[in-house]
Design a protein that fits this description.
With 391 residues, this protein is of the alpha/beta class. The protein has 15 helices and 13 strands. It has an eight-stranded parallel sheet, with helices on both faces. A three-stranded antiparallel sheet has the order 1-13-4. A two-stranded antiparallel sheet has the order 2-3.
């Protein structure tokens, strides 16, 4: 695996031949439909892994260590990898979880006890230092950018501070509870003052349907500021908040992705993203994919704990369903990472690469799923320094 640092707009001629021109790819070679998808089989290239050194860091990529049998002969291409789903579990996030009046006594002591019990690292108080740790983790694996999702309403400060520290590495999302009378003001302030590019909604946690008029002012702001709306249906099998000791407020009555159809139809210019692939709601997702071209899907699993070790889960069946329903242009790569010392979930990345290899997708399509679709969705500039991974 080799890292190549390039400035696309000022690329030397001697390097130009090594950078793929994804814009020249004929998109007509893939035809997604409601029932099936036709794709071109990629040519199986080089059987060797080219393990190089990062120019700036001088360190081998961990993805290539101890996994030669897995990565051998996967692809012969260079991609910019963007993680479209990661959680910014800040110190303030855990403090918000712990601040139940009269229940825990000394909140700081309770937080330290819970962190020891769960064997996780309590984040530093300064969000900028947590952002710095994430950037080091991204550099370790060669991740160019990452979408950081706030854990709870009220933690907008942590997200905006992380964005302020590394504006070229993070794409920020705030968590909004539409029941709060200040929800619109909080979102407006986070966008104008903090550079936030998206909003997260949790219908089950905050007990509303995506089609309720209550949420429409949030969609209106998203349309005005060109924000992306992540909708989290679930809940996950073992959310961090529940394991921490917070009360589980998820209401399954609102776990209905079909309700998103009305909102997506009323706001056709707003990109909506279903934050997790939900096998139990496959008919609703297929219907959404067919009727709403502005609805996307993230590969982040909904049934894996962030604290768990490498899963090695085969996601090929789920990815096949995603391709059939949404087509490759509406599939976004995401891991759901968020807890240290676990760090970035490279096992999710490896599982996705294995599924992409088995499906025989062209390299250009793989590049779109790993980062190209997110670059288009957030209108990211190609002129900045990028990380290109060669497998």
């Amino acid at each position: 695996m080799t890292y190549t640092y390039v400035y696309h707009k000022s690329l030397p001629k001697r390097l130009a031949a090594h950078v793929p021109n994804t814009a020249a790819f004929d998109c007509a070679s893939i035809v997604p439909t409601f029932v099936y998808v036709v794709w071109c089989c990629s040519t199986r290239c080089s059987a060797d892994i080219r393990i190089g050194r990062r120019v700036a860091m001088g360190r081998d990529n961990p993805l290539s260590r101890g996994s030669s049998d897995f990565l051998c002969g996967l692809f012969d291409a260079r991609w910019e990898v963007i993680d479209g789903h990661a959680h910014f579990y800040s110190y303030n996030y855990f403090r918000l979880l712990s601040q139940v009046p009269g229940q825990h006594g000394d909140v700081e002591q309770y937080m330290r006890q819970q962190a020891r019990r769960l064997k996780i690292d309590l984040p530093p108080i300064d969000p900028g230092r947590l952002a710095q740790r994430w950037v080091a983790e991204m550099d370790r694996y060669g991740i160019s950018r990452m979408c950081l999702l706030a854990g709870l309403p009220g933690d907008e400060y942590s997200i905006t501070e992380g964005l302020r520290a590394y504006p070229d590495r993070f794409i920020g999302f705030v968590d909004v509870n539409p029941h709060l009378v200040i929800a619109e003001d909080v979102l407006e302030h986070a966008v104008r003052g903090g550079g936030v590019k998206g909003v997260c909604l949790h219908p089950c946690r905050h007990r509303f349907h995506a089609s309720d008029e209550l949420v429409y002012p949030i969609y209106t702001l998203a349309r005005r500021h060109r924000l992306t709306v992540y909708v989290n249906y679930g809940p996950p099998s073992c959310p961090v908040a529940t394991r921490w000791g917070a009360q589980d407020n998820h209401d399954p009555r609102f776990n209905d992705p079909a309700q998103l159809h009305f909102a997506a139809s009323d706001f056709p210019t707003v990109p909506f993203v279903i934050a997790h692939f939900l096998e139990k709601h496959l008919p609703e997702m297929l219907r959404l994919a067919l009727l709403c071209p502005n609805v996307h899907i993230c590969t982040s699993p909904a049934d894996v704990c962030d604290e768990e070790p490498d899963t090695g889960k085969n996601i090929e069946p789920q990815l096949t369903m995603m391709l059939k329903a949404f087509g490759y242009k509406r599939i976004l790569f995401g891991t759901g990472s968020g807890i240290f010392p676990r760090g970035w979930r490279s096992d999710m990345f490896r599982s996705l690469l294995a599924a992409l290899k088995n499906l025989g997708l062209p390299n250009e399509v793989v590049g779109m799923i790993l980062g190209g679709n997110l670059k288009r969705l957030f209108r990211l500039d190609d002129s900045r320094l990028t990380y290109l991974i060669t497998l």
